[in-house]
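Sample intake sheet
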Amino acid sequence: MVKSGFDLFEELFGNGFSKDDVYSGMHKAINPREEALQRSFVQALASGDKEYLAKSVKDYEKDMRDSLNSDFMKAYGLGALLVDELDLAYDALVKFPRKRSVSEALALIKYTKEDYVLAAALFLGSDYRVQTSRVLHSLSIYNSKQKNSEDIGTHNFLLSPHLDSLAPANNIMGVLNFNSEAYSSAVDYFAKAKELSESSEKTWLNWMRAMKADGLESEMYPEMPRFYALTGSSLGLEDLTAELDKNKLEMPVVKVKNLFGIVKQLLA
């Protein structure tokens, strides 16, 4: 019986996280102190006053934890993000009303904090509005090291919408197939990644490793001049040979760029 992607996710993370119950509920609560703080945070965000925000997220942490005012939570959470207080930002925004865009924002924060188990669970409740969210979800699952975290079907289910457009999606699938000794499939994925990101030395090296492992060295060598021309690689023959002898590949590293701007847009 072929399992659906969500069946596989349930095996990975169990049913302890419900995509509808990740957040505690809250509501608009009228509190003059909180309203004043909210206005101050909004003004500081508008002016980019990081000095005020860095001090205020510490000074008013108790207000945040006691608050039921969603507007204050949003202003506080964005303020904390802008000054890289990710734990405080998460603690504020996790109290937000149940919205799939909020789940995605929280997942991005946890991914950045390298809390991959929780990030993977939170991504389940999202709509993947951010282009790279499926890639980050896949990497969260892999890096969580939970049961079936290297299951190729799970990652293919997530990444299939982006295999024609995103090099990291193909690199992930290539690494999974290579490490499972499915070298022909790895060659295909790395070839697509190479097509989408011609200047990436790491992608080229992975493609060459897969070609070599699949017994296609004779077809690989004619591509060497393009490898050096497109990547600007400084690898000499000895170093290149050592690189191609690797028998286990590492996942690509994908960072969240402009986390503050992305979260702000998701909460809009």
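Comment: The two ends are 42 Å apart (CA to CA). The domain at 1-18+115-256 is CATH 1.25.40 (Serine Threonine Protein Phosphatase 5, Tetratricopeptide repeat).
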